[in-house]
Amino acid sequence: MAMASLFHQSSKTHFYFALANVSRRSFSSFLTSFNSRTFKLPFQVRAVTTPTEAFVGFDEMISGTQRKYFMLGGKGGVGKTSCAASLAVKFANHGHPTLVVSTDPAHSLSDSFDQNLTGGALVPVQGVDSPLYALEISPERTREEFRAASQLHGDKGVKNIMDSMGLGMLAEQVMQFLESKEYSAFSRIVFDTAPTGHTLRLLSLPDFLDASIGKMMKLKKKIASATSALKSMFNKGEPQRDDASDKLEQLRERMAKVRDLFRDSETTEFIIVTIPTVMAINESSRLCASLKKETISVRKLIVNQILPPSTSECKFCVMRRKDQMRALETITKDPELASLKIIQAPLVDVEIRGVAGLKFMGDMVWK
Which residues form a coiled coil (predicted)? Predict the structure, then answer.
């Protein structure tokens, strides 16, 4: 039987019952009416309340007006962007001015929101109850801006370090979230991160730069000391101030702040997204272990694209469901993943696009 019929036949659990009640006609009507809503101001946190029907989990994520960061990551192709975008929409609809940021060089936010978000600048997303902005970080634009600033200040040492590492551009962007007034109004910032390897390099970058800059500064001090001694021997006057060293020290301090942000469990949480296959779950386990090694808070695991129980004679559906259940069983036995809160997200029979579709998904996932 066609895959689309699966969700209209399931009645075993409330989770799938809610999904089965949404017909294509009602969903299309929902899309039309929801997308017609206007973008509301003022740009401030409204009274954040938890509705009586809210489930344990998301109510904790929306509690309080203190800024919080949520980073979603995992293996490529598991639905990180849809999960991140749907979370951002739900935050905005619960009173939080929200920013969703893509750090993946191959951006998908524009496709997910069905809106042009390119250009490396803040773009307002229409159709939510509180301000929602999206930002697709442009590595090339950020790199050029950094080069221009470095040349303006004659800071070749810092420029050479950052030019050699594209990830440094992303860390610099994260630093702007902490310092720039442009981002001060956002109470929730959601990161749609790149696939596992790229994200782990980004998260470990502050420590790497701290160690590298420390070594460079020690070497520069030794050279400066020797140079100063030679100049004094030949009466060449007072040594000049080393602006490059000052810039390196400033960069080191800024990266330390980024590192502290990543590791602050009160304000930052990493959410792993996976699918119910053994390969994806194994990679998620390795990611979780690496995050714990970096002392980054991870408490939730989203298992996306789960088939509901089938009451039909579709052999493919039955076998696929059994295979997924075996994969889910491995999570309970995995030493890294077993302690995480598991969020099961269904495979739906419609493509999730636009704010209305993301709200539809968010109501199923973020409970």
Answer: 241-268
